[in-house]
Structures are given as C-alpha cells and as structure tokens.
Write a structure and sequence with these properties.
With 62 residues, the chain is mainly alpha-helical. The protein has three helices and two strands, in the order ααββα. Helix 1 crosses helix 2.
Length: 62
C-alpha cells in the first residue's frame, strides 16, 4: 500500500499552494478524512487527478 500524503506534501509535489490543493479537492481530487482535522491523499489519486486536469486543458485549448 502506498504511503498517504498530507496537504503540504501534495502542494509541494504539484508546486502549488495549500489553498490550490483545497480548490482541487472541490474539483474532484479524492481524499481521505481519517480524523476531524486530518486530510490525506493517495499518491495514485493525485496522479490521476493531475492527468485529468492536463487532458481537460488540452481539450479546452483546441
């Protein structure tokens, strides 16, 4: 099983702000809430979300 990532780690990986990660959550980035104040992400879910964003941007550019 992959190690889960926190918001800061996702932001660092994607080179975006924490605020952008929360925006991505609203746009469909899958996340887990194992506790009241804890948000975790599976690396696979982050990669799939980014791939979808890139694909959607490519279609919009045409």
């Amino acid at each position: 099983m992959d190690e889960l990532m926190n918001v800061n780690e996702v932001a660092d990986k994607l080179k975006v702000s924490r605020s952008t990660v929360y925006t991505y959550m609203g746009l469909g980035l899958k996340y887990l809430k194992p506790g009241n104040r804890t948000t975790r992400f599976r690396p696979k879910d982050v990669e799939e979300f980014v791939a979808k964003l890139v694909k959607d941007e490519g279609q919009r550019a045409r």
